Amino acid sequence: MIEVQQILIVRYGEIALKGMNKPYFEKALLRRLRKGLGAATAQTAEGLIIVRGYEAADEAAIAKKLLRVFGVATVSPAWELPSREQKDINEAAVAWMRRRLCGGVLTFKVFGKRSDKSWPVTSPEIAALAGEAILEAFGEDRVKVDVNEPKVRLHVHLRRKNVLIFEDMLKGFGGLPLGTNGKGLVLLSGGIDSPVAAWMMAKRGMTIEAVHFHSYPYTSKRAEEKVKDLADMVASYCGRVAVHIINILPVQEAIREACPEEHMTILIRRSMMRIASRIAAREGMGFLITGENLGQVASQTAEGIAATDGASSFPVLRPLIAFDKVDIMDKAREIGTYEISIQPYEDCCTVFLPKHPATRPSPEEVGAAEALPGADLLASLEEEALGTGEVYIARP
């Protein structure tokens, strides 16, 4: 049989639409892909990225890593043929099918594609000739053509210098390569929403860091460990994530002592925004990110969100703002954060909850309530909270 090379074909989706900026995004994607390849290589070739130079036994593990890289649309284990002669294509197609034979009749369909239009054999002819060779090699008692629902969908892609033969197209997450769309600081709680929000912004190419607020000893150390586990899971998609861990309990106690109960949640959220803004400025971030979802809880009404936005020094991105809760939960399951998020460990948002929180606070009401503890006192407590922070580095 003609010698073939085992490769992985990586395809991107949205990057192909970037026009004059396409090379920038391709290079960024290649950098991300190469980080997890070890001795294997990745190179662009005629609109595809080809991964070569790995051990056959490592193929499934490498493909799994590639599929977690944002910007990757699909990955296909494939063979690369140096020859474009039809007899060699037929021989390779037969060899591929031989690996797939099992008991009973195996149905198949061959799909031909000719990128080099100067080649005398057309795409339909490439497929027909390869299909005939398969039928001749195994007979209709072992293989059978099925154009509607074949068990094996064998693709033969003739290009300018070689031929690619593959079957599966494993689906990735798509999006844009990490690091191509700014830097954002996510307010990471232990709930379902904020890890999904972080993941979605990373999928759009944004580099992510996080800030987590706790109320120890009202919240437990296990709750903090849960957040670290969530950060580790997010990091498995987007690399290193720094988590700034802040004790906000003194701020909460001051607000509870002096402010109207119905405004406590909004005022605490505003303090979080101010502290997060300070961290973002210090770390060179350009945005804040939250997992807020319009109408999900009392503080996430349109008026409540507007009130918290007023305390931020940076634009606040809310990728989940119009999602249904069930859709957020489905995405959390898909990316692996759901089972961690539902562990029964409280977070700081559950401390000092008002019985009847304000759902439509006016700017005037919020401003008056926030002034009650004294602006100097709140600023001092927020500064102290920043000083108590520690940093956890989540890595894949």
Provide a concise account of the structure shown.
The protein has 396 residues and is α/β, with parallel strands linked by helices. The protein is built from 13 helices and 15 strands. It starts with a strand and ends with a strand.
Number of domains: 2
- Note the beta-strand portion: 15-25%
- C-alpha Rg (nearest Å): 27 Å
The coarse silhouette is: elongated
Describe the largest sheet. Answer: 9 strands, mixed
Let me know the number of strands: 15
What portion of residues is helical? 25-40%
Class by SSE composition? alpha/beta
Which features does this protein show?
single chain, about 400 residues, alpha/beta, VC0802-like, Rossmann fold, 2 domains, 9-stranded mixed β-sheet
Write up this protein.
The protein is an alpha/beta fold and 396 residues long. It has 2 domains: 5-171, VC0802-like (2-Layer Sandwich), CATH 3.30.2130; 183-394, Rossmann fold (3-Layer(aba) Sandwich). It is 40% helix and 21% strand. The protein has helices at residues 22-34, 59-67, 86-100, 123-138, 193-203, 221-238, 249-258, 264-283, 302-309, 325-335, 338-341, 363-371, 375-387, and strands at residues 5-12, 41-45, 48-52, 72-81, 106-114, 143-145, 152-158, 163-166, 170-171, 183-187, 207-214, 241-247, 287-289, 316-317, 390-394. Strands 1, 2, 3, 4, 5, 6, 7, 8 and 9 form a 9-stranded mixed beta sheet that branches. β5, α4 and β6 (143-145) form a beta-alpha-beta unit. α5 packs across α10 (325-335) and α8 (264-283) packs across α9. It is elongated.
